[in-house]
Design a protein that fits this description.
- By secondary structure, this protein is of the alpha+beta class.
- The strands form 5 sheets. The chain has a 4-stranded mixed β-sheet with strand order 1-2-9-6.
- Helix 8 packs across helix 9 and helix 9 packs across helix 10.
- Bound molecules: protoporphyrin IX containing FE.
- The site of protoporphyrin IX containing FE (HEM) has 25 residues, from helix 12, helix 13 and helix 18.
Length: 410
């Protein structure tokens, strides 16, 4: 029986890992009709393509391809910018990335530690309530009450967006994240793009305001960023700020939700982590590996790329499956499908990509996830599922949408 990658199949959003394992075993370099591209599921192949200096991310590098042609047509029709660093090859990519790097480097992120800890603590207080002394039991939806609203509010604060506008970004980033999927209906696509344009317009006005009146925030730092006399143009700047929102909000929510669910489903690991919180930074790496948000990235071959099973030709589109790679037993051993918070090499996961486009926000993402999971595990005990969980119906950005739990506080 030929095997087909089918992200629309029943059960895929709940767990895509069975399909990944079947593909990896039977057809690891898989030609997908649905995606009009190649799906890779082995760690070695995904890692190799991500680090290949000759692959492109620019849609215009693709040969005739219905998915990409429609994307280019939508961009041109809507006058939308392709200036984001995510869709640029070198040398443009390197220039944009250098200009954006400073506010997200390890030292700059370390300076955000106190603000992040304070906001996490306030958000958890408001989610679980602080009234009354003594032990209490309670029930929350971790996503709706804590993991969804907090990263966007924090991101707005760090970027210098007025607090009262932060709820708007919840709707905007959700629809833009959904647009990463290659097979939406045109109605869904148009509705999402209208929201994208709204967000773009808002951020464009805000960039202008920061230029006139800079503040002590990341957006003002980007407005001022200059290297070798070069600055970001206004269009570039707006495109990068939009990218920061799209890339920086939903995946952090998803990491916390997916990560906590993975721990609840592995109670021995949850107890171990609660008994020894010093394991948390390493545990976050393992949670990224085990069920991280990003399932696929996209690349375009510019020369033939040979695998034992097939050759990908120039102009063809590739979907390196980072989620699949992170469960490949050839890389992780026979227990690849379980959580092991002290897995020695968990840091080699591919959740943050690899090569020149590796995640610019990896330090910030880990800081936030450690602070949020740390606070939940410190303040809540006897955490248990309190009903059905629900998953977002998406292929690229995997996230648990509803995560009801019961708990005790002491
Ligand atoms: C758990 C959270 C996150 C995950 C799993 C994640 C994952 C990724 C991945 C896989 C890529 C590579 C995309 C590609 O190769 O095509 C990427 C790129 C990127 N990420 Fe993240 N990300 C996270 C959080 C963040 C945050 C908080 C920010 C905000 C600063 C951010 C900003 C970016 C940017 C700007 C890029 C583009 C880098 C480039 O093209 O050079 N990400 N991210």
């Amino acid at each position: 029986m030929p095997i087909a990658f089918d992200p629309l199949a029943p059960g895929f959003v709940e767990s895509p890992y069975e399909q990944y394992a079947a593909l990896r075993a039977a057809d690891p370099v898989h030609r997908s009709e649905l995606l009009s591209g190649w799906v890779l599921t082995r760690y070695a192949d995904v890692d190799r393509v991500l680090r290949d200096g000759d692959v492109s991310v620019e849609p215009t590098s693709a040969a005739a391809n219905p998915v990409i042609d429609a994307e280019i047509e939508r961009m041109e029709r809507g006058g939308r910018s392709a200036a984001t660093l995510v869709l640029r090859d070198d040398p443009d990519h390197a220039r944009l990335r250098r200009l954006m790097q400073a506010p997200f480097g390890p030292r700059a992120v370390d300076r955000m530690r106190e603000t992040v800890a304070a906001r996490v603590s306030e958000a958890l207080d408001s989610a679980i309530g602080t009234a009354g002394a003594g032990a209490r039991t309670g029930r929350i939806d971790v996503v709706a009450d804590f993991a969804y609203p907090l990263p966007v509010a924090l991101f707005c604060e760090l970027l210098g967006v007025p607090a009262e506008d932060s709820p708007k970004f919840r709707t905007w980033t959700r629809s833009v994240a959904q647009n990463l999927d290659p097979f939406l209906t045109s109605e869904e696509r148009e509705a999402n793009l209208a929201l994208y344009d709204e967000m773009n317009g808002y951020l464009s006005d805000l960039v202008e305001a920061k230029r006139e009146q800079p503040g002590d925030d990341v957006m003002s730092a980007l407005v001022a960023a200059e290297e070798d006399g070069q600055r970001l143009t206004r269009e570039e700047l707006v495109a990068q700020v939009v990218t920061l929102y799209v890339a920086g909000h939903e995946p952090v929510t998803a990491l916390v939700g997916n990560g906590l669910l993975a721990l609840v489903r592995h109670p021995d690991q949850l107890s171990r982590l609660q008994a020894d919180p010093s394991l948390l930074p390493h545990a976050v790496l393992e949670l990224l590996r085990y069920d991280g948000p990003n399932q696929f990235v996209r690349r375009i071959a510019t020369r033939p790329i040979e695998f034992d099973e097939a050759t990908i030709e120039p102009g063809q589109v590739i979907y390196p499956g980072v989620g699949a790679a992170n469960r490949d037993p050839a890389r992780w051993g026979d227990d690849a499908e379980s959580v092991r918070i002290d897995r020695p090499d968990a840091g080699s996961h591919l959740q943050f990509g690899a090569g020149i486009h590796n995640c610019l926000g990896a330090h910030l993402a880990r800081l936030q996830a450690e602070a949020m999971l740390g606070a939940l595990l410190r303040r809540l005990t006897d955490i248990d599922l309190a009903g059905d969980v629900a998953w977002s119906p998406r292929m690229v950005l995997r996230s648990v949408d509803r995560l009801p739990i019961t708990y005790r506080t002491t």
